[in-house]
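Anyone up for a design puzzle?
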């Protein structure tokens, strides 16, 4: 298992890093008293009690279940460091990024905050708001012992180490196998083409009662779906330099048409229900309530849904493959990471906490691969035998997916404005406020203006 995890992680993250390195490219905490706390320094309650009182702001995205893990880890750190008080700033995914953008623009970023490298890496790496970690490594405040170099490279920009990964994951369809079989149907295979998935959805939709659906409408929950669709055809969301869209009008037309047909057959919820679902906590989603067969999410979230659904047997189905595409799959590997603000007034203490979060064996066991496969071998070894069954399935899924996808690329600056624009026009199509052709033309025209063409 150890070798399999290590080889898999090396394979996964190596593909990420062509662009993550862009310009250039904690002794692990022991689970014992008075020993290494994950920052490379020894700590005990007596020594910490006499130190200066410190407040550290820590922000992350997630849900109530993830919040519990964060709080348990941060409580543990406060117990070991009585002089430290951690101000916790959790948000849902949808609320997190606008809030963080506002804080950064106002010079009021949290001392430590989460950063999704695929989606927002370049957006923040180029804003000169993240504190490089190299000097704290040199001081022994941040430990890199046992870290895979490829994972470190993912958080490196212009030669500076800016971020440490909390895990590596990938988008998929979390599948309620028990509910499907309860309809008298067989669960789909681990891989299924777009056309076969549409046929399967039509059959399943007929078997479901009113108010229940086959899957989520990906056009209304973000840009992962369209990005995978164009990557399968040799394109990309944006060109590498961010100067233009990386796909053609016909790609977007065909994608929106595919999901309009799924909407018309009742396989996905009507636009108003999808819009309502976009902002609810995970426990309030149709999938978590047992009213949907598939949920479009990163594989690391499968265990959360397994816990929410109780006795239901879940599986992981690959996002539909494109048999006649340049690549069968278009998935992007995702690297949620943790960074420190350049404006922090408590940088040394923040560095210690950051290192503790990703290195300490007790802390990482609490976190339990919440964001995917850990990037450090000692942590992976410590988790062996304790991984959630759905995390085991996630490992198998990644083995399958990484065989036929294009290299993962970190999106260039400007991607956030384009994804927001895409979402706006997706909503207008779903609510039938514009035809697909009208929306495609308007999207391409406005995108060209944003990108400075």
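Challenge accepted. My sequence:
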């Amino acid at each position: 298992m150890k070798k399999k995890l290590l080889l898999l992680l090396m394979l996964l993250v190596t593909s990420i890093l062509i662009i993550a390195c862009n310009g250039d490219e904690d002794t692990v905490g022991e689970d014992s008293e008075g020993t290494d706390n994950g920052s490379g320094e020894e700590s005990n309650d007596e020594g910490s009690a006499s130190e200066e009182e410190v407040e550290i702001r820590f922000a992350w995205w997630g849900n109530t279940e993830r919040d519990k893990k964060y709080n348990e880890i941060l409580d543990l750190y406060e117990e070991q460091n009585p002089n430290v008080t951690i101000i916790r700033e959790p948000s849902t995914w949808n609320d997190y990024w606008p809030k963080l953008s506002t804080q950064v623009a106002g010079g009021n970023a949290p001392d430590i905050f989460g950063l999704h490298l695929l989606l927002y890496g370049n957006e923040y790496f180029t804003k000169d708001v993240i504190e490089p970690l190299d000097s704290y490594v040199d001081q022994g405040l941040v430990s890199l012992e046992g870290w895979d170099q490829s994972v470190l490279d993912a958080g490196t920009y212009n030669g500076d180490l800016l971020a440490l990964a909390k895990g590596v994951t990938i988008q998929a369809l979390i599948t309620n196998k028990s509910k499907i079989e309860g309809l008298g149907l067989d669960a789909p295979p681990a891989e299924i083409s777009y056309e076969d998935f549409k046929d399967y959805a039509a059959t399943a939709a007929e078997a479901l009662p009113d108010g229940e659906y086959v899957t989520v409408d990906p056009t209304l929950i973000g840009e992962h779906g369209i990005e995978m669709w164009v990557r399968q055809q040799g394109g990309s969301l944006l060109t590498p330099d961010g100067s233009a869209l990386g796909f053609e009008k016909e790609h977007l037309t065909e994608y929106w048409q595919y999901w309009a047909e799924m909407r018309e057959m009742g396989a996905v919820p009507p636009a108003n229900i999808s819009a309502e679902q976009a902002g609810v906590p995970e426990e309030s989603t149709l999938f978590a309530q047992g009213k949907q067969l598939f949920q479009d999410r990163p594989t690391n979230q499968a265990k959360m849904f397994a816990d929410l659904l109780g006795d239901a047997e879940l599986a992981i189905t690959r996002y539909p493959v494109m048999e006649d595409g340049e690549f069968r799959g278009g998935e992007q590997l995702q690297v949620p990471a943790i960074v420190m603000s350049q404006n922090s007034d408590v940088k040394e203490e923040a560095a210690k906490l950051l290192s503790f979060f990703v290195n300490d064996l007790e802390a990482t066991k609490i976190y339990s691969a919440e964001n995917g496969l850990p990037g450090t071998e000692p942590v992976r070894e410590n988790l062996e035998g304790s991984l959630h069954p759905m995390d085991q399935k996630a490992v198998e899924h990644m083995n399958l997916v990484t065989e036929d996808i294009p290299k993962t690329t970190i999106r260039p600056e400007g991607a956030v404005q384009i994804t927001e624009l895409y979402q706006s026009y997706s909503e207008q199509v779903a609510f039938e406020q514009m035809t697909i052709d009208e929306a495609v033309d308007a999207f391409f025209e406005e995108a060209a203006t944003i990108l400075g063409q």
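A detail worth pointing out: The first helix runs from residue 2 to 20.
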